[in-house]
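A.,

Following up on our hallway conversation. Structure tokens first:
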């Protein structure tokens, strides 16, 4: 009985590994941005119907980093740098809303199809709407569900638009959320966030690393 259980656990781990890498490949090659969508599609392709074999999001993210390193290193690094530079301009533009960069552009898994994701903070969410209107930026209004902590989830305003071929994704939160970031959908920890000063420092460190002949920081 014990050996049978061990064999079953080993098979489950192997399938989780295969599914994580297939989901990562789909994200890298097909532009899928949603981890759940990627893992479900990978399971369908590989004929897996056991939920216990589905990888966690952080396993897919690790596989995605490995795939990008092995197969897309140069192109992905160029795209990431361009998106981070676009994020600098966006952080400057939305300075009145204490913006923070989040998501793949910050964590280093973004590619040419990734949007620049920002969190803006305002007591009145309509202030962001008015700001976009005043500057002639046509944006699509949506909502996004975020886990604010382990007990509470909220539907928050989301604005989507593009400028010069770069997609932007603005989530509007209460200023109280500056104290504690919502939980990441990847590892369920508080989201990593960067201010303009922090992103500028990251870019400078990458440039120095490049001059030293080191790999760019991710």
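Then the amino acids I'd put at each of the 218 positions:
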């Amino acid at each position: 009985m014990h050996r049978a259980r061990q064999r079953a656990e080993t098979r489950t781990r192997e399938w989780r590994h295969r599914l994580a890498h297939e989901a990562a490949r789909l994200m890298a090659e097909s532009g899928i941005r949603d981890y759940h969508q990627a893992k479900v599609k990978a399971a369908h392709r590989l004929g897996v119907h056991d939920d216990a074999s589905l990888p966690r999001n952080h396993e897919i993210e690790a596989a995605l980093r490995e795939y990008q390193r092995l197969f897309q290193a140069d192109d992905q690094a160029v795209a990431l740098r361009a998106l981070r530079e676009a994020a600098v301009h966006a952080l400057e533009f939305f300075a009145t809303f204490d913006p923070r960069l989040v998501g793949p552009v910050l964590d280093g898994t973004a590619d040419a199809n990734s949007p620049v994701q920002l969190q803006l903070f305002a007591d009145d969410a309509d202030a962001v709407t008015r700001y976009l209107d005043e500057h002639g930026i046509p944006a699509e209004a949506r909502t996004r569900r975020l886990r604010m902590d382990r007990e509470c989830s909220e539907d928050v305003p989301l604005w989507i638009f593009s400028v010069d071929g770069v997609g932007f994704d603005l989530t509007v939160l209460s200023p109280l959320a500056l104290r504690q970031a919502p939980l990441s959908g990847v590892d369920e920890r508080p989201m990593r966030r960067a201010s303009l000063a922090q992103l500028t420092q990251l870019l400078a460190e990458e440039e120095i690393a490049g001059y030293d002949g080191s790999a760019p920081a991710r």
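Residues 214-218 have pLDDT under 50 and may be disordered. Curious whether your intuition agrees with the design.

B.
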